[in-house]
Batch of 2 targets.
Target 1
Amino acid sequence: MPSSNPRARHFPPPMSSTSLSPEGEEVAEEEQVVTPWEVSAKQGGKIDYGKLIDQFGCQRLDQSLIDRVQRLTNRPPHVFLRRGVFFAHRDFTDILDAYERGDKFYLYTGRGPSSEALHLGHLVPFMFTKYLQDAFKVPLVIQLTDDEKCMWKNLSVEESQRLARENAKDLIACGFDISRTFIFCDFDYVGGAFYKNMVRVAKCVTYNKVVGIFGFTGEDHIGKVSFPPVQAVPSFPSSFPHLFSGRENLRCLIPCAIDQDPYFRMTRDVAPRIGYSKPSLIESTFFPALQGETGKMSASDSNSAIYVTDTAKDIKNKINKYAFSGGQDTIEKQRKFGANLEVDIPIKYLEFFLDDDAELEQIRREYGAGHLLTGEVKKRVIEVLTELVERHRRARAAVTDEMVDAFMAVRPLPNMFS
Amino acid sequence: MGYSKDQLIARLKELQIDFDQYEHPVVLTVEEQARYVGHLDGALSKNLFLKDKKSRFYIVSALSNTKVDMKILSQRLGLGKGGLRMAPEEALGEMLQVPRGCVTPFALVNESARSVSLLLDQGLKTQGHCFFHPLSNDVTISLNARDLDKFLNSIGKPPAYVDLEANPPVGKDQPPDLAAFVPSDATILPDNLEKTASSVAPEKNHISADIKSKVVTDKPNKPPNGPKKEKSTDAPAVSASFSDPEKFVEEILEKTSRVVLSEIKGEAIKQHGDQLGSVVSNSIRRQLTAELKNIATIFKNTAYTEGFHASNHQQPKRS
């Protein structure tokens, strides 16, 4: 099952044949499995997100919260909120309560820099984070876990650093405001106050606990075992003295995909024990592969996703040839029965990326009733995706090495809340 | 427009770079150049302007007798075996803004060559003086590699010297040793998109096979094969919008005009009458808000970065 969020870890599968739910109970394999290292639906069906919320114990992001966000930010809520892409949270209400009182917060997100160009699924959390930054006018820290990739993908240190810088350019192209954004690579930044927090966190997590969460075995090297605190401490403002000194109680909001929830549960568990506030989370569904929800989005199959380096022609080709269609086999059948919107990938992609609610509703209606053909829906999604990718590419071309240096400079951000 | 040789020479003098200058008739090849300056104390350089399959460009500047194997170089850059070829002649003019036979590291002074990667032969450091063209091929300048470095640093392109004749293995456990030289800015134009404001140059699908210039070929030039087409570059126009306020405003006005013109049509006038103004105004907001905010952010980030760079290179105040 694809999990193309940027924080997806590819950990080895758990030793036992069943998976552990957060309460530690064994869950039978017929159930869906969602962990930082494995995501699979029940019996080749779809992920049941409602069940996931119950299983994890996080909260649903309901319409009243979305309305509240609109009121507080004075602008229409982001398309991902309207369409239920970001659908769950932990303590997002606290963030909003504080914000309403005049207490700001900061955003924290990150990416494990891989070698491939990013695909659209990778961009989703960053697009949403940019919206949050603009709407709430708050600062953002972005962590590039080059050390993690070095360890898990067995890259050289230099190569993982290089990839981190490459990926940084794509992230910058998403449109973050340099006067409120700090991007850092672990290899450059770990040390000082950040490292002190890492040790504080590490002291609170037993070996058994990390094995339980991440499935480490006796064969895994110690680098992996001691990595988790690196990803936990950006949740604490004291890790960034050049940004937040004097603001030790600043709250943190982490946009991420829901498979990261077990991971940040560890962080939230530790936080009060070391005198810090728990970070809040706002979580998204998974981005479907071209071949469908049950298809596997794989780095080795470039036809399972749309990449930011794809040309207009590539996009057209991939959608036409590989996008899983919910339409009927023949035009006659299509006109008679309409399309199955639940599994249709072009419709899913339009749900993510077509901003106009009215237009989407019309397309869904007509397609479901059989008045629109698959080809016509595909044509529309090709247009939308091409425009998106083109805009990204243009923004990316404007990112120089110097701009990356500027984003990564350890510098104060005096206007980060204005 | 591109730097002229006189502007470059003036720049070198400003930077107090030590060099000698020789004028001669126009030369297109190293052999010809040797006829005029070969007797002088110094080493001739050969300069290749190369391009990879993803439209990224490279200048390889080497001693004329250093062996440069394009296949090996391609592998060391991580481009696979046949990833590098001679760049087409149009790119010479568009990106380096130099004439045929005039590829030179000095061409990097031009903004249009911003994303070109420079590989320097470490052999250049072993010579007292090396010969390069200073942006035109009726002059040769001779200078020490250290002075070349001074120049390159001044344009924000810190030099990196490489053993061009080395042939290290490249494989799963030995990553390509020159991978860091691959520019990240690909200068690619999308095909068939009317959305971009700047005009799209026609795609050129061939490489000029008749460049008997300073570019030394190891194999005969072949037209590109495989599914990837070569695209012409439009990098200068794209970046200028984000650093030049006039171009930036021009782009905003162009996009806005396009919406206005597309909305004010006979039908629409009939349909909305007096209300057409607010209809068009809403249309502009709806269609352009996100996009204009995005490009404004890029403009801001670019300006901030320029300030950041300037601050880093600030000379201490004279007391």
Target 2
Amino acid sequence: MISQVFILSSKGDHLIYKDFRGEAGSDVVGIFYEKVTALTGDQPPVVMSHKDLHFVHVRQGGLYWVATTTADSSPFTIIEFLNRFTALVKDYCGSLSEKSVQMNFALIYELLDEVVDYGYIQTTSSDVLKNFIQTEAVSSRPFSLFDLSNVGLFGAETQQSKVAPSSAATRPIQSSREQGGKSEIFVDVIERMSVVIGTNGVLMKADVEGEIRVKCYMPSCSEMRIGLNEEFSIGKSQLRGYGAAVRVDECSFHQAVRLDEFDSHRILRLCPSQGEQTVMQYQLSDDLPSAPPFRLFPTIERDSGGRLLMYLKLRCDLPPKSAAINVCATIPVPKGSVSLSQELSSPDQSAELKLQNRAVDWKIPRFPGGTQLSALFKLEVPGLSSASMLEVGPVGLSFELPKLTVTGLQIRFLRLSPIQPGPSQRWVRYVTHSDSYTIRI
Amino acid sequence: MLDSNKDSLKLEAMKRIVAMIARGKNASDLFPAVVKNVACKNIEVKKLVYVYLVRYAEEQQDLALLSISTFQRGLKDPNQLIRASALRVLSSIRVTIIVPIMMLAIKEAASDMSPYVRKTAAHAIPKLYSLDPEQKDQLIEVIEKLLADKTTLVAGSVVMAFEEVCPERIDLIHKNYRKLCNLLIDVEEWGQVVIINMLTRYARTQFLNPNINEGSGGDKTFYGSDEDEDEDEEEKEKNPYVMDPDHRLLLRNTKPLLQSRNAAVVMAVAQLYFHLAPKAEVGVIAKALVRLLRSHSEVQYVVLQNVATMTIKRRGMFEPYLKSFYIRSTDPTQIKVLKLEVLTNLANETNISTILREFQTYIKSMDKDFVAATIQAIGRCATNIGEVRDTCLNGLVQLLSNRDELVVAESVVVIKKLLQMQPEKHSDIIKHMAKLTDNIQVPMARASILWLIGEYCEHVPKIAPDVLRKMAKSFTNEEDIVKLQIINLAAKLYLTNSKQTKLLTQYVLNLAKYDQNYDIRDRARFIRQLIVPTEKSGALSKYAKKLFLALKPAPVLESPFKDRDHFQLGSLSHLLNAKAGGYQELPDWPEAAPDPSVRNVEVKDSVRAVGTVTFRDTGGLWDLQGPQKVEGKSDSASGSESGSGSEESGSGSESVESEEGSESEEEEEDEEEKNKKKKKKELKKPVQETLTILHLVLCLQTIAPSSALKNYELLHRITGEGLSVEYCFSRQPFSPDANMVAVQMQFTNNATSDTKNLHMEDVKLQSGMRVKEFPEIGDINVAVIKNKRSRSCSKFFVSIQPPVGELMRPIFLTENEFKKEQGQLMGMNEITEKLTLDAKCRNEHAIVQRVTTAANLSRVPCGSDKECRFAGRTVTSSSLVLVTVATKEEGAAQLTVNCEKMLIGTMLVKDILLALTQ
């Protein structure tokens, strides 16, 4: 049961406010914002309470999405509802930002009205909602994209020339109905990897979570067939053939996916509804099909002048054709480090000492596969002792691998049947993000 | 603009108004102008007006009444969407005067044709209830009616209404329990959450605790894996706990929902299993919950809270997933801390070394709070697991040389707690810590060290006075908490070693006497009176030593989640660790099981209530008196009642064969029999309606036979005196035991009189050669059917003969795998036969059909069109069965069967040969 739902900008402006049950006063928004801002730390607790009222919030797109409740309802329901609601707003408005929400007040209010009735969640499926929101299609003002044209689909910058402009996928689903002609389908294979490499270079833990997302702008729903690699296998026992298998441990599908051909031909059949949906999610744990993409060879010593010398060699083990972009290595340094002098192997890299985090950030905009980069950092640490050498902690790496999936999952084909009249465009994109890539030293 | 004639202008105006509302601005003064437009034809304008009305109707009641008539008209609209939205808005207008109108509208909508409107009616119920609680009785009637509704759309909403209006009326659920369980999987996800939560509560009141018989240590469970509803009281005594079949039904039907995409559903099922399932089965939820850890951090946070509680009670459940709780550098602090909590709870003798190694790396983290929490966690591990205590202690002592004060301070505090458990052994550690007092600045840590030294001063007799001397020097600059401990230390030393420390103590006490803090002054005064012998001091000073140096019990480091489990998991109260408004305590298990028959009888009742059609049984009514005795009885009762009511129906009415099913599952033999009754009925009124009603009942419990299956006769109608029985192999996996083959039986009564109390008696497994040769045959029972009639009892001896092809289940292989497996099953295991195909069976399709009818195999994809390949596994022994049919010219063909069990192979060859040649 939800008493109120409101959306706040990060500055605390009211964007949307809707009261469903009239149980709580109207100043709750202010109370919430005070509570949120009063807290320090990277993330305020999900549930906060004020007298009898409980606030549940999530942060997405730089906005606070808050629901309040007075009764004891499952917190999961509310969190899940808020997440779904943000997804819906994203579908209907194209993107999640303060601006897009502001421009679509009426539409979001309508959505909220349909999704929640007297605090009870009715439905969040965009297929069902289509029937009700249809009348509002015109009311969503054509949403201008010019200010977003440089933002990628998932906030990721891509540097591919062949690919559609990244803003292409951030438009409201309903405008496609007006424009009519342009029907497009975007399929993204996104993987996130978390890896821990031990001090001796041994892979201690590896986890890959992947998902296939489909964003569909088809005016009419036709059937879509997504073919995955034939060698795709699930679980350890089920190895197919002798070739290099693409293996995952576990996978789950969207409920709309029909799997009659999955067992035999690894084909997913679905009728995508408009908007974005996650068709398939899969996990692979403790086993990477190839070597981990980065290795680090550190040498850390104390020089005669009492400075800390860190000589780091970073090797990228990707296939030579691919490259990692936006690589950033975070090297924790001893407390009390004062200054940093650096020798980097190429000019486009940069390094910086962040005193607040006690870490050196080494940034590499582009890192082609099969190459090796090195850096020498000299740190001025007053009162350096051998104990503080131990404080040079595990190195965290964040990066993005475009056009590559670590598991090797590929989309063989993407077919629509019946064939669409008029031009239809299909886009497929692969990307691997680092979730947490830690190298212990 | 609102007065304009043009819709577009009106629309624009309404949009602006709605935007004002959305921003939280007051737009109420426009009310009259807006209300006028409620009758507007344009649906977009109309919707926005509705939005406006719902928001402001309460403030301007009189004007709002103007719009009511429009909604009343809308309620009769042919379009279901308009009916629904009219009802929705009508019920959202919070004006007390219209309560009767709302009541009427809800009642009407509850019997609307469209399920969508009925759903809206269900949603309207809580609204009306909150507006006027006096309508409760009438609303409960509506809820009762809607609960009987069979569409999935309505189920979720009506349970929401039930929970809000009358959660205490658990009796309303009885008759709908099974239906809800069965519909559950098709209900939309938000409804699922509510229903599952409601059913959890229901099950807690209606079923017995499945873990009731378990000793504290044993993991043994006594529940039968199957339904057992033996009413015999003596039986019950012998077999202490048997799970109610309805309880089992609930568990079985919710299990697939663990795969749901919706975290709320998964959590709801998880808490249901946690609260309701027998211990041995709770494990299934662990995997699902671990999966949730991969979603948004908000969800992670709540999941971890729940997991932390669960790990305290059922540690074994999450042990296999230990690695999933390792901390990632990108996790927010609160999640890190929760993960630590879980890891600590999971730690035991076997995995402690890995966990400690993990903890060691965590200590290097930059996140201060997290490091502190890690050190605490190490402390807790050390207290819980005796073997590693020394290792932990050493590790913590090493941390004392860390440069970070926070780390050191936290370690000192933890070491203090650990040392308290066995101080004798560790005087060197205390010495080491005494040295640290010079360096550590964090007051809490200093205080801890001082306390330790004071407490165990007899272990370190030389150092203690020295420390006190140093402290006395710096006394004035210390924090209050440290000062207090200095006084304490002084007092203790004075008592044990007064020679050396008398002066020092005096000095410290004097300093304290003039301290700014009254607490310290008080303490100094108190201690001085107590320990320093003066002429005035009373009896107390004699006991000073006892007072100060009494043995203090070691602190117990326990999880903050320890006491959380009295809240229902997954609830907001659990998350907050405080009662939230409206939290309903999960009821305790009942001492004795309430009558389970309430659910049975009422299912039939509801059927009768909805279907007003009465029917007469000319063919007699079959009743199964299997293990489900109660159900059988009620069956006959309701059947005969309705039958007698229509005695005078004309003979001109249509006769229809319809089925009513009831399932009987036998537990002693672990064999499930799907029994079906066929009734011949003469129907007086619309045939279709009865059919659908009966069909629904059927769907609840039986699997409809598929036409493709071959039926075998068990009892001919002449030998069976009118009763004929057919059976077939349903080829559906038999859920209670994967190594069993399901047999579906169909009973038809062709006689003129009722046959009652049909049951199996004396079911024997066939013994002898066949069992030895084919272990699979052991699954199939040979049944004796006893047929009790009103005048006589008849017994028929029947036996079920399973063809060998039914004793396997299909498996999926690729062509390569097939070839590989075939290569391993050569020689003795391969049987090849040449044959000439039947004239009708020359094409591939026909071959595939015939082979799959003869044996339960699945086709293997194959490159050439001359060959058809099939694969399967025998049910009990899981040995591979591979069949290849290679066709040649003019109907010649070659059949190859590869099977590890040669006997099965030969029999299968015969069967398939027969199927292909005839």
